Amino acid sequence: MQDGMDHQAMAISLNQRVWSLLEKNDRTAEESDEMVHAAHASLYHWLQAGGPVQQQRGEWILGRVYVVLGIADAALRHAQRVIDLTEKHSSELRDFDHAYAFELMARALELNGDRGKAVDMWDMAQKLGAEIEGPKDREIFEGDLKAIPFAPACSSTVF
């Protein structure tokens, strides 16, 4: 806290705001803009106060926001960052972080029209999700899979 700001508290608060907006069914255009700004700000604060785990998760929520908003290029950019961070810091991340990385990439690829690769990523996300050790973590992951339909015609499993 060298600059007097509690970056961790700010990151957590902003992250919670992003989730509340992501889960809102009747989000306004202004709230969608707020969601984007809050997600970027949350990542900024995690970059000040956290480590690779928080960075990976911050990039993931940014990608999720862009997927939900249908902004394909930004979704793919953040999904790739999540994959890169997951590979680079694999041992520091939890089992669900790996599953979420592939889930996001699948959605970003689908949004960008790359169905073949999207299905491969989706299948990997489901495989990794089934291997999540904690039953509560696995349940949350499966709920997040169902929260946004993923149904390319060639997918072997559809939620």
What would you say about this model in short?
The protein has 159 residues and is an all-alpha fold. The chain contains 7 helices and no strands.
Describe the structure using short key phrases.
159 residues, mainly alpha, 7 helices
Description:
With about 160 residues, this protein is mainly alpha-helical. The protein has a single domain, classed as Tetratricopeptide repeat domain (Serine Threonine Protein Phosphatase 5, Tetratricopeptide repeat, Alpha Horseshoe). It has 7 helices and no strands. The protein is globular and about 45 Å long. It starts with 6 loop residues before the first helix and ends in a 12-residue tail after the last helix. Residues about 155-159 have low confidence and may be disordered.
Number of helices: 7
CA radius of gyration:
15 Å
Percent of residues in beta strands = under 5%
Question: Helix fraction?
Answer: over 70%
CATH fold description: Serine Threonine Protein Phosphatase 5, Tetratricopeptide repeat
Oligomerization status of the protein chains: single chain
The CATH homologous superfamily is called: Tetratricopeptide repeat domain
Total beta strand runs: 0
Identify low-pLDDT runs.
153-159
- Alpha carbon gap, first and last residue: 43 Å
Overall shape: it is globular
Domains, number: 1
Main sheet properties: none
Quick check: average pLDDT? 92
Q: Give me the secondary-structure category.
A: mainly alpha
Write the layout of secondary structure elements.
Elements: H1 7-22, H2 29-49, H3 52-69, H4 72-88, H5 95-111, H6 115-130, H7 135-147
Helix pairs in contact: 1-2, 2-3, 3-4, 3-5, 4-5, 5-6, 5-7
